[in-house]
Amino acid sequence: MDAILLGFQTLATPMVLFMLVTGLFAGMIVGSIPGINDNIAFAVFIPFSFAMPPDQALALMVGVYCAAATGGAIPAIVIKVPGTASSLLTAEDGNAMARKGMAGRALSIAITSSVIGGIISSIVLLFFAPSLASVALRFGYVENFALAILGLSSVVGLLRGNVIKGAIAAIIGLTVATIGFSPVTGFPRYTFGNINMIEGIPFVPLLVGLFGVAALLDLMVDIFRDRKDNKPLSKLPEIGSLLLPRALMRRLWPVWLSGAAIGNVIGMLPGAGMLMAIFLAYDNAARRFRRLYAGKPGEEAWGEGVPEGVAAPESANNAVTASSMVPLLSLGIPGNSTSALFIGALALHGMVPGPLLFSQHGNIAWMIIVAFLVANLLMWPVAFLVIRSVSKSIFSIPKEVLVGVIAMLCFIGAYSDGANTFNMWVALVAGLVAFVMRMTKIPLGPAILGLVLGPQLESSLNNSLLISRGDWLVFIDPINHPISAGMIFVSALLWIVPVVLNFLPKKAA
Asked: Domain residues for 101?
């Protein structure tokens, strides 16, 4: 308890607290720019922290880290262009709500979900970091492969009545993920002699294309239909109220808690990443919605404006931010790529994460932990101010002008990732593919999941088989790898149970 009080005392210094709030505003604004992922937002501010005292610098970085993931939800909801990769699922139901005049409610759900997920994760970090870090150490190549299989199996919950098209989408994603260097041979694959593809298809331009350019094409179709029907020039619907009804909050609490729990668990696992967490949380919320609300009067279809579709991924993605610091601060092992950048921020000030951090720089270590909790408590007022300024200006722009604005943001965002014009072509082609997929009712989610999990799946599989000397039973070994065996068992249930449940009513009929 004395250590926690020391952390609060260090953070309570006026300049340290000021830098934390500055980081929140900066992260929120930068995160709301399409194409700027969490890593870029964090990396941009590391040089600024070099000349600051360690406590102020790290408070700034905590603020940026927490707010960047939340800020990505603003353009995802308003114009269906995720600011960061962590908001890609928020764009579906969030933008659908915005088009129906409930943008304010969708934004409020997103911010509230992020705050709740972040607070729960911060409390876990504050009180349970050392004990939970030992669990993360038990995840090796075998467990990471099983985790990737579990993530892909979660797609089943998103594909009711559309399994074949969903499988096609997942295969497309996994296939694109194989482009570039092979983790086994080290030779490039499927590059067709293009040097820009040697390291694989760049993810940020791909994300910008799949969501941003595709949303741009959707907007152009809307404008064409308006002109065809001789409708007057229109703007996006008004933002509406930001207040959440009590009944809706009671309905969303189970989603917030489950999303935060998933984010906490995934965030602590090295290499799992934020995208894995949001997909699992989204799938879990979809199953719950279909069980309790689907088909009832006044309820939208999943993916067409359901509040749970916004609450689940947003609570999960912000829960990952603090929980990813559990293995980093306790053991020096980053939970994801953004927390790995935190090692650089610490190194700039002569600190090394791990057990020695608490003995040599105890006040800074506990200040970082406490800063995550305070940052999430301050998130709502900061987000409210940013939403009112950014969203209001976007909603006042006519659709015809918005097309140009979105196009500029998309292609600048794609180009900025490496300053390469090839990235702009990637965004354009990805946007066309996503647009065709939507027209043919092929879901985009499984393709994204395949892209994200493909490299982890392949490298973990190869390394696991090398360690086990080609023994495939290593993945279901309950003695040496009980965590892997458990996840493979759950993955099998995710496939088998829906088939059995669909078969039983037919037999009864």
From this structure: 2-503
